[in-house]
Amino acid sequence: MAHDGQVKITRLGHAAILLETDRTRVLIDPGAFCADDVFALSGLDAIIVTHQHPDHLDVERGTALVAANPDAVCLCDPETADLVDFGTWTINRDGLETRVGDVVIRGVGSRHAVIVPQMPRVANVGVLIEAEGTSYFQPGDTYEYVPEGVDVLAVPLGAPWTKVSETVEFVQQVAPRIVLPIHDLTISELAYPMYWERVIELGGAGEARLLGQRESTRVP
């Protein structure tokens, strides 16, 4: 848990984030790139899924995760709610606010980024989380929606729909105090600086924190 009014942010692989305050634990996007121990977590107050793609929700292992956290609020976009057949999921939408413990979760946006025009855009609802006076934004798979007042931005760094210039522009538009990378297991170690260094050099964030797949940081 975080202490002294800080928020603890832990990466758990690719797009999965565990956000903790003294009172509340929120897990976001437990997908196929996560190790098995992520799906054995307990004591969660909320489980959030931004969209249906398997790198954001591993349906097979997610069943055990939800069963291990029977009191957790489970939030997801409307299309994912129609697809999952385990647990009780609450639909998250753009602008909808949900309070869990000392955390307020607000839905941001509605559609996934375009991968190729021939593919339909699935639903995608990012989350702006207010905790301990800090606002944390995780957009899911899109750069389209830019909320105001973001302290910490978890920026998707690499995917079939991303482009480095658009990543940099998105960070510039959000203008966070701190930026950290997520959605990056599609990038090789050798190529990683080609993406992350551009965010550092050109994104304009106050601070850039490079977290490994199992690393944590604390934000006052």
Q: Uncertain spans, ≥5 residues at pLDDT below 50? A: none
Annotation, overall tally of beta strands:
14
CATH superfamily: Ribonuclease Z/Hydroxyacylglutathione hydrolase-like
**Strand order, sheet with most strands:** 6-5-4-3-2-1-14
Principal-axes shape call: globular
Query: Share of helix among residues?
Result: 10-25%
Q: What structural category do the secondary elements indicate?
A: alpha/beta
CATH class: Alpha Beta
Mean pLDDT: 97
Describe the main β-sheet briefly.
Answer: 7 strands, mixed
The helix count comes to: 4
CATH topology: Metallo-beta-lactamase, Chain A
- Count of the domains: 1
Strand content: 25-35%
CATH architecture: 4-Layer Sandwich
H and E order = EEEEHEHEEEEEEHEHEE
Distance between the termini: 13 Å
Q: How many whole angstroms does the radius of gyration measure?
A: 16 Å
Observed structural traits:
220 residues, Metallo-beta-lactamase, Chain A, 7-stranded mixed β-sheet, 28% strand
SSE layout and pairing:
Elements: E1 7-11, E2 17-20, E3 25-28, E4 46-49, H1 59-68, E5 73-76, H2 78-83, E6 89-91, E7 97-100, E8 103-108, E9 126-131, E10 134-138, E11 152-156, H3 164-174, E12 178-182, H4 192-202, E13 207-208, E14 216-219
Parallel strand pairs: 3-4, 4-5, 5-6, 10-11, 11-12, 12-13
Antiparallel strand pairs: 1-2, 1-14, 2-3, 7-8, 8-9, 9-10
Helix pairs in contact: 3-4
How would you characterize the overall build of this protein?
By secondary structure, the protein is α/β, with parallel strands linked by helices. It has a single domain (7-219), classed as Ribonuclease Z/Hydroxyacylglutathione hydrolase-like (Metallo-beta-lactamase, Chain A, 4-Layer Sandwich), CATH 3.60.15. It is 17% helix and 28% strand. The chain contains four helices and 14 strands. It has helices at residues 59-68, 78-83, 164-174, 192-202, and strands at 7-11, 17-20, 25-28, 46-49, 73-76, 89-91, 97-100, 103-108, 126-131, 134-138, 152-156, 178-182, 207-208, 216-219. The chain has a seven-stranded mixed sheet with strand order 6-5-4-3-2-1-14. The protein has a seven-stranded mixed sheet with strand order 7-8-9-10-11-12-13, covered by helices on one side. Helix 3 runs parallel beside helix 4 (192-202). The longest helix is centred in the C-terminal third of the chain and has 11 residues, at 164-174. The chain starts with 6 loop residues before the first strand and ends with a strand. The relative contact order is 0.16. The mean pLDDT is 97.
